[in-house]
């Protein structure tokens, strides 16, 4: 990739960052600094990713936690590897168990949405296979921040207060440990206020020293199971003990000479690839990023891709069509022919918002990592294992309760998963990691990052700064306040229901690191949050 050819048309408080020795881009500056410190101590990009990921459970608990899931794409020694560290539904959690509680869908708060957490296993698996340092060395910055405390960042503080209000409204004694951990004084910490959690520190030490075994088969597992039993939960000892993350083959498409790579289902990176497969059949003028025709075709391709994704994506063992069938050129041609001048109707319903962290790392040896980790919907389920700081996610909310749907809830089955890391290659060489957090905006954010780079020549920071949009349901698209008004009006005349987003955070938060042929790294960090690029 020729950085000189990339331009920067959008105003930002940040500029693209260049470096050669290493780079870490995250949504929280302290986590980025932790990853960089690990690099400078002799760690590689994988060690830095693990360090930053563990750190984010402490310094950005509003979006992820020790009890969440994770996915990673790792470039090492000229090859791309995929890690799926999402967890299945507990053996005791069935459709009947949910409906007996009077629920017509799985609620976001409480035990019904809790699946087996995969994040600790992801850290251990990455460190064991690719790390240069021990897991204890990689997790040390997170332990230090948990024990000594850190000043809370502004966006995190705002989201923290939203979480406090949410769980206060939910009520229930099972949420008391959340308040003991995250709001011990009855309120969320303010921006700049120091918050500490010794429970997090002790738990991270046990995970580090045991290679995450304690989380799944030791004292931490026993505490989690005991909490579930005492508060009406479904997670059992066998569910935790039987868990291990999966190394998977990434899936990808060729988009104008670039390889665009995603984690295969149960993740929905497939939606990005479906949309790009449709769009590669159109020509886009490099100077026409903000043209009505460009947005119209992007909108239509995304709706068609989501119609397929929401119908077919599930635990891969339960999918009724193959990825190869969905990504065939013949199928892309068939879907592309549906796009005309007017907006199409879309069948899927309204997807929920998300709570996730994304990070990207690179080192001088050529290793690069695209990593994403989440508790979903902010703090997740609102359940914290007492005395541990383990905030449990609620990924089971994405299961369908329709027994005829491919993604229906079943014991031991993984749900449709929204968190997805992305990676770009060209001619067998790594260009780099990219990602956008934010539930169902993620595949759409990936598409926009790829097209901003490949079709419209934007550098990493400009690609993130550009006005963002997302499909929400039917013919409805949300656009940011800086989205051109004349373009929005023209799209409305074509039948699109255009609405201004209530806030930029609804459009996700991303990071990008590209490497050129000379080994120079170029990084961008999301302007909509507290993040930064740390480099040397």
UniProtKB/TrEMBL annotation:
It comes from the Bacteria. InterPro entries: GGT-like_enzyme (IPR052896), GGT_lsub (IPR043138), GGT_ssub_C (IPR043137), Ntn_hydrolases_N (IPR029055). Pfam families: G_glu_transpept. This is Gamma-glutamyltransferase family protein. The lineage of its organism: Bacteria, Bacillati, Bacillota, Negativicutes, Acetonemataceae.
């Amino acid at each position: 990739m020729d950085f000189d050819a990339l331009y920067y048309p959008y105003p930002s408080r940040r500029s693209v960052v260049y470096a050669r020795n290493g780079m870490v881009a995250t949504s929280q500056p302290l986590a980025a600094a932790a990853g960089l410190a690990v690099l400078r101590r002799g760690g590689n990009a994988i060690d830095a990713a693990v360090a930053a990921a563990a750190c984010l459970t402490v310094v950005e608990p509003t979006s992820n936690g020790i009890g969440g899931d994770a996915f990673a794409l790792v470039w090492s020694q000229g090859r791309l590897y995929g890690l799926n560290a999402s967890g299945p539904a507990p053996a005791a959690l069935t459709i009947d168990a949910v409906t007996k509680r009077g629920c017509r869908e799985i609620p976001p708060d409480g035990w019904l949405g809790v699946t087996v957490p995969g994040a600790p296993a992801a850290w251990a698996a990455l460190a064991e296979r690719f790390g240069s340092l021990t897991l204890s060395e990689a997790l040390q910055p997170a332990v230090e921040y948990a024990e000594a405390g850190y000043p809370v960042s502004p966006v995190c503080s705002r989201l923290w207060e939203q979480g406090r209000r949410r769980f206060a409204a939910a009520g229930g004694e099972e949420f008391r440990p959340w308040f003991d951990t995250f709001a011990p004084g009855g309120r969320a910490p303010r921006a700049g206020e120091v918050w500490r959690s010794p429970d997090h520190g002790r738990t991270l030490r046990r995970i580090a020293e045991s290679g995450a075994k304690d989380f799944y088969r030791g004292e931490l597992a026993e505490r989690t199971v005991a909490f579930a039993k005492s508060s009406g939960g479904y997670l059992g000892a066998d569910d935790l003990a039987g868990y291990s993350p999966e190394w998977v083959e990434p899936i990808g498409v060729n988009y104008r000479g670039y390889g665009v790579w995603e984690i295969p289902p149960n993740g929905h990176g497939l939606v990005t690839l479906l949309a790009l497969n449709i769009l590669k059949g159109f020509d886009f003028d490099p100077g026409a990023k903000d043209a009505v025709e460009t947005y119209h075709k992007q909108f239509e391709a995304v709706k068609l891709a989501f119609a397929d994704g929401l119908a077919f994506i599930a635990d891969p063992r339960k999918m009724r069509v193959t990825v190869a069938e969905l990504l065939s050129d013949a199928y892309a041609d068939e879907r592309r022919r549906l796009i005309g001048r007017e907006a199409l109707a879309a069948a899927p319903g309204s997807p929920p918002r998300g709570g996730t962290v994304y990070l990207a790392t690179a080192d001088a040896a050529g290793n690069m990592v695209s990593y994403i980790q989440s508790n979903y919907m902010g703090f997740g389920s609102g359940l914290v294992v007492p005395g541990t700081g383990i905030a449990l996610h609620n990924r089971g909310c994405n299961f369908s309760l329709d027994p005829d749907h491919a993604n229906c809830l079943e014991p031991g089955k993984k749900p449709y998963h929204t968190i997805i890391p992305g990676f770009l290659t060209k001619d067998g060489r790594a260009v780099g990691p990219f990602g956008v957090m934010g539930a169902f905006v993620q595949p759409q954010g990936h598409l926009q990052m790829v097209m901003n780079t490949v079709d419209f020549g934007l550098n990493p920071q400009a690609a993130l700064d550009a006005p963002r949009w997302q499909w929400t349901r039917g013919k409805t698209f949300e656009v940011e306040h800086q989205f051109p008004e004349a373009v929005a009006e023209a799209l409305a005349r074509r039948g699109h229901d255009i609405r201004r987003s209530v806030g930029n955070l609804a459009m996700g938060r991303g990071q990008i690191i590209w490497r050129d042929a000379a080994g120079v790294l170029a990084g961008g960090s999301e302007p909509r949050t507290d993040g930064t690029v740390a480099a040397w």
